[in-house]
Amino acid sequence: MTTAAIHRDHAIFRVILEATSHPGNGFALPDSGTCIDRQATLINMLGSLMDNEVTFSIIGDVGDSIADAIAFRTGSFLVGISEADFVIASRGATDGLLALIKRGTLEYPDKGATVVYLIDEIADKGGNAALTGPGIDGIIQPLFSGLADSELSGLCKVNSEYPLGVDAMFLDAHGRIACIPRSTRIGIS
Question: What CATH fold (topology level) applies to the domain 3-188?
Fold first, then answer.
């Protein structure tokens, strides 16, 4: 790996940490100007998070080339959805499979998976869900355009037994990310 690639991965990881620390807020990934290659952005983002000790699964049709590129870049392996450490929801939906995604155990709650939703756009206001909890000052209502209507209520359900649950990341078409960790409470109006 080149020095430039190492610096890129560190910069991406820092943005992901910032997004996780401020749930629901959108943050631009490095080099994500107005015209981005979403596949390259996704692969670089996952490259900063994944290695050969984790697994992934993909929901929706993104083509075999994406799965191959993720596996090549990260060294991780494609597995079934209930075994995956990372689940990529390619159309902003888990197609009713969210309940199958692993949520960790009481001994190892960190073994819960991370769902990466590919969506159209992240806006800091205008959504129907009210987010509260660590890292949020009061209540925020971000809008995730392109996210299936049932996903936030599904996340609320699978995260109802905290510390068990799944972490969610949202990557939009403009190279912005937002995160909703399992510790965030989601109120649906």
Answer: Rossmann fold (3.40.50)
